[in-house]
Structure formats: C-alpha cells, structure tokens
TrEMBL record:
GO terms for molecular function: holo-[acyl-carrier-protein] synthase activity; magnesium ion binding. Transmembrane segments: none annotated. Residues 9-127 form the 4'-phosphopantetheinyl transferase domain. HAMAP family: AcpS. InterPro entries: 4-PPantetheinyl_Trfase_dom, 4-PPantetheinyl_Trfase_dom_sf, ACPS, Ppantetheine-prot_Trfase_dom. It holds the Pfam family ACPS. This is 4'-phosphopantetheinyl transferase domain-containing protein. GO terms for biological process: fatty acid biosynthetic process. Keywords: Fatty acid biosynthesis, Fatty acid metabolism, Lipid biosynthesis, Lipid metabolism, Magnesium, Metal-binding, Transferase. It comes from marine sediment metagenome.
C-alpha cells in the first residue's frame, strides 16, 4: 500500500446468493456478460460457485460506487476480481481494470483500489475504497 495516497472514495454492496444462482441457471449468457474468463474459471472451481460469483459481483458494484462511475459508465466485466494466494494460503482479492474502466479511473486520479469480500450461505458483501493523490 502506498503511504502518500489519500482515500478518495468508499463503496459497499450486498448481494443475495440465491439471486445470483437463479440468474446463472436462467440466463446462460449471464456469466460471460458480467465476469471475465479468469473469474469464471476461479468460481467454477469452487464447491459452491454461486457464493463466489455473488462475492465478485458485490465487489464490482462496490468499486463502481467507490470510484463514482455511475450505473452505465462501464461494463462490470471491465472490472476483474483476481484472487491471489498469500503465504497463509488465504485468497486475497486484487482489482484489475480493463477497457474504459482504466481511463475513467485515471481521470479521477485513482492509483489504488482495495477491496474486502465476505459471504455466508445467503449473502455476499464487499467493500471497496479508492486511493489517489487528490
């Protein structure tokens, strides 16, 4: 984490896991519309994939709120939640922006986006905060 940056935005989102499960089952194109190939591979490798898709969906929405993109400024697929393992074998989510999300974040002088995701059987919640020199 860079020490010379200020918090420039905070976002939070809550997603019902069953809602995501219904969307996956009802709409075959749902996953490819909102998630990257890496995200789909990661979640499909989990025992209860809907929980992990819900967590990533909540994180994407929280990021949009923290940056102030607005509802239709970017596609959710342009925000990737990549899971990196740390030394304790825990998964740490890392944000990777693609396409127009990069230029919009640059316009807002965003240099870092940090997120935390947690979930139960019923809900996934994510919080995001952005840091920049503003």
């Amino acid at each position: 984490m860079k020490d010379d940056l200020n918090i420039s935005g905070i976002g939070i989102d809550l997603v019902e896991v069953d809602r995501i499960k219904r969307l996956i089952n009802k709409y075959p194109k749902f996953l490819n519309k909102f998630f990257t190939k890496n995200e789909i591979e990661y979640c499909n490798g989990k025992k209860n994939r809907a929980i992990h898709f819900a967590g990533k969906f909540a994180a994407k929405e929280a990021i949009i709120k923290s940056i102030g993109f607005g509802n239709n400024a970017i596609k959710l697929k342009e925000i990737e939640i990549n899971n990196m393992s740390n030394t304790n074998n825990n998964s740490i989510p890392k944000v990777i922006l693609h396409g127009s999300a990069i230029s919009l974040a640059n316009k807002r002088d965003i240099e870092e986006i940090l997120i935390s995701i947690t979930h139960t059987k019923e809900y996934a919640i994510a919080i995001a905060y952005t840091r920049g020199k503003a």
